[in-house]
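Researcher: First entry.
Model:
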Amino acid sequence: MRRTRLTHAALAVLLTIGAGFAAGTAPATASAASSDGARPAKAPASAGLLTALRHDLHLTKAQAERRLAAEQRATATEPKARKAAGSSLGGTWYDAGAGTLTVGLTPDAPQATVRAVRATGADVRTVAHTARELTATQARLDKLNAPAGVASWHVDPRASTVVVNVVAGEKADNDVRRFVERAHRAGPVTVRHVTTAPRTFAAGTVGGDPFYTGNVRCSIGFSVYGGFITAGHCDQHTGAVYGWDRSYIGNFQGSSFPDNDYAWVNVGSGWWTVPVVLGWGTVSDQLVRGSNVAPVGSSVCRSGSTTHWHCGTVLAMNETVNYSQGAVHQMTKTSVCAEPGDSGGSFISGDQAQGVTSGGWGNCSSGGETWFQPVNEILNRYGLTLHTA
């Protein structure tokens, strides 16, 4: 059922694991797929992956290798550092320049807390507000009815503020001005201007592969046992889902959009699931070995059926994105480009699944930003288990 181009990593997995892909095989536990400690990647820096990072992040080969290794360390350190920070936590992010995880602590943090955080290997920076204060501010904004001229809002732990992104051409709009005034009353808020409003990337089970439903083409996110996950806005409520070759795959078993942007599709009729994300010839097909969350500042790559493979960095987490169809919450913003048809496709950091493509602005010729819905939220919502190698 799979295309012949799915040969490199995918075929290797089929040959080495064989019947492990068959329906009914006992899956790895969900807790193992999302445990606090990142499992070391066996091959985190294939030649193709390094080439993509070098191109999109303007790095040398040595810089790309060092960055991947440092990001793995930061991802493993983050849960321990957050626990050590306790109530003084202001947020965490990856500092690409220093190659370390940075933890924001409020000025009143006890010295014992500072020492405990540093003992995890993280750097410390003083910030004005706690993560709890910033999260509460964002939650207040989530209850407001945002006009179309407000693109999104998210917590920026480095600046210790909630950033509200307003479309520059709409900043004088009365509804936008009222929203901004109410936002400032909600807590520490900073307004920034963006060039355009976000849109979803839907057009007209391997991550990045196309699928069709109704008159829409989207992209597969990640294989789970029994099916695959993708973007909720791809569900046209027509029932049947068809694969790249237009043969029947299955049906949407659950979806949510707006408020969330996730869905899952069952797989049958001769289709099967594999823990692979397509590299589209830019990189070798990537094996999926878990879903540990990469911190803000980490590199991340996306696979989709329109623009294939592109990389960038994680810019923000837990951002609320105000699409024309309604707000979507708890999204992760990236500097990766995308275009219509890429919706639902895979975001992956090293060999760790991050999320499914939702929408953004711009394109892959002039650049842009793209949001994804985090994978672990989808797995938890539907009680699914990620198919890992």
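Researcher: Second entry.
Model:
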Amino acid sequence: MIILFYFFLLTVQQMDVEFDKNYFWTSIDKVQDKNIYRIKNLKQPYYYVQVTLFQNDLSFFLMYDLNQIAQLNSSKGDYIRRTRFLKIEPNGNIIYISTQSNSTSGYYNITIWGSKEEYCDNSCSYNGKCTDDGCECKSGLIGTDCHQMALEIQDEQTQLNLFGDEIQFFYLNIDDYQEMDIQLRFSTDSHQGIEIIIQLTEAIIFPSQTQLDNESNFIKIFKIYESQPLDLIVTGSITQQDNIQIVLAARQINGLLNTFVSSLIINLSKYNKYENTVSIIVIIIIVIVISGAVIIIIVMFFVCKNIRKGKQLRQQERERQARYRDQSGNPHQDQLNLFDFLTPVLINQINNQDNCIICLCNLNDNQEVRQTCCHHNFHSECIKEWLSKNKKECPVCRTNIAPKDVPTNPIPNQ
């Protein structure tokens, strides 16, 4: 517990803000995991906070809450890009201001003052309207102080032309599409690609070689190429909030080395997730049907092959019996070839016998197989040679192969 307590003190610093007689306070502090500032004894209706970073820190976040320590994703605040300005109306509550960063190096200046007057940052006064939640920028301007020019996405298709390392900002006002799922498709004619940074934050993020925090809930980084467009789906759960704005920045990858103009095309459309789901189900059904048809065709092929081979064997058996009847009815023919009494069989009809007992080799489909009346199987050539030696018995059990009272002659060895 002591170790955890000291760890908490090292990573979280809390201090009380003591104003001078003009209700003014300022401090230069070190960037660390979390700093907390508490304001008590509130005597002014409005309090203003301004933070200026002495270095570039893409993970630095400023937030505030009333009567409780501010927490990321639940309290009001935003990322800082060099300077951030907050207006707080406490209504008699204790103010907690927090700064948070993934970095532990560098410094920043925080200034807090109280006033009876209500005003916004100077840039906001020129380019936007001051509201309780901050600046409401005019069309074509974005940022916490409305200083950054940007193109608003309003039409079904918007095209931006990017040259060299030029950065262009554009934005989409989500509150214009209440309770509607929308889709943004980004495509380009650049084979070297375009980097797109999507921001759910009022802070202006300038793309740079510095790696941004891509795991953040407020920043997403994507790269698109000529053959790899990007689809962004904005769901109704986001549009149910008020005054939500998606800010995007784009520039060419390796723009300093590229002297060509690249086009970024943005298509805005309504997204119907049910139609998309139906399309996926149809594709799955088609794949299953085609796969099933292929399997059935393969099975039918082998079944027909076995049926055809069986018919051939039965036809040979009928021809053998016909020859036997012709020979037995002919008084001049009193002898019979023993080999004709052996039945041709399929390999899959052989049970408990893998080898020919005469040559000791495997029985397989490559050679014809004959079966004796005692149900022993041999290669046709092997049993034919056996019978040519005037042997009428089965090589396995010595059973007489020829039927009774039927005279036979040995098969001439060919």
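Model: Note on the second entry: Residues 335-414 form a domain with the Herpes Virus-1 fold (CATH 3.30.40.10).
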